[in-house]
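Researcher: Sequence recovery benchmark, item below. Answer with residues only.
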């Protein structure tokens, strides 16, 4: 049975066993430590038999003139575990955390051609809207 849980500062070792395809790259111990040291970073994981088979990450932030918001960075599920509702459960866990933190809104972006992600976000109650994204390369 796959269980979804939010990880906290003492849970970094949970990421020692991750299925292929959950994250874009291998876990880097330096970035993992920095992630878990920052209370504004949030990570929900789906675990099956001690193996992380899905994850969703987010950051909550504040601005001087706006209430807190939750930015969902990404959702990833191992290929063998897709189409089982895991992505939605992970996203819902992050949205619940945002509510607990007093966030007024949560948002994310995806590519127009990513039909699976768009279906997931619509099914979870998201509203699709227009957005133009710019990327600035800060490191080669």
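Model:
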């Amino acid at each position: 049975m796959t269980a979804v849980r939010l990880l906290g500062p003492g849970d970094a070792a949970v990421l020692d066993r991750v299925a292929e395809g959950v994250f874009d790259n291998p876990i880097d111990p330096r970035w993992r430590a920095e992630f878990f040291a920052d209370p504004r970073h949030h990570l929900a994981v789906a675990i099956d038999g001690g193996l992380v088979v899905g994850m969703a990450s987010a950051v909550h932030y504040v601005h001087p003139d706006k209430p807190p918001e939750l930015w969902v960075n990404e959702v990833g599920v191992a290929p063998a575990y897709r189409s089982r509702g895991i992505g939605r459960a992970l996203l819902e866990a992050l949205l619940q955390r945002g509510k607990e933190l007093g966030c007024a809104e949560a948002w994310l972006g995806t590519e127009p051609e990513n039909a699976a992600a768009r279906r997931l976000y619509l099914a979870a109650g998201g509203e699709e809207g227009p957005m133009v994204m710019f990327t600035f390369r800060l490191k080669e």
